[in-house]
Amino acid sequence: MAAGAPARRPAEAGFTLIEILVALVILSFVALGIAGLFSHSIVVNASGHDYALLASEARFALETLQGLPFDHANLAATGTGTRTLPSQAGGFTITYTVDDYYVADWTTASAGSWPAPQGTQTANLKRITMTVASTNQILEGRRLFTVSGLKIPG
Fold first, then answer.
1. 122 CB-contact burial (10 Å; exposed 0-12 / middle 13-18 / buried 19+)
2. In this structure, are residues 150 and 127 in contact, taking their beta carbons and an 8 Å threshold?
3. E strand intervals along the chain
4. CA separation (Å) from 122 to 37, 107, 126, 129?
5. pTM of the full predicted structure?
6. Model confidence at 139: pLDDT above 80
7. What ranges do the domains of the chain cover?
């Protein structure tokens, strides 16, 4: 060795600049893929929350109507039209229809074919069909929830 020259180390350990850049590029591709999954999971989670609120709103509105007396004005047959209800939580449109039926023999009522009242017959069964729609404009797509229930006098 020449005098004044720095001493060489026999086996210096470490990464070259090229190796570090290649590792960063690979890590960047992996991170971008994971970031896409995170954004998708946020949208799916928000949509699931909206569906849960839809179901809750529909159950609440249906139970409210079923709690009314059988001959209440809100339970009069709607024919081909629909009625609306105010939303409990806001952000939803609630529409419903009521159909009147007359069941002469309750042992066969489970068959599901109920005739409409004829002549002087008074309805003794009502079917309430309710549709709740989300008015959330942030999430894409249309979210609807439809539920129906039966009401008998008494």
1. exposed
2. yes
3. 83-85, 92-101, 125-134, 144-151
4. 58, 19, 11, 20
5. 0.69
6. no
7. 17-151
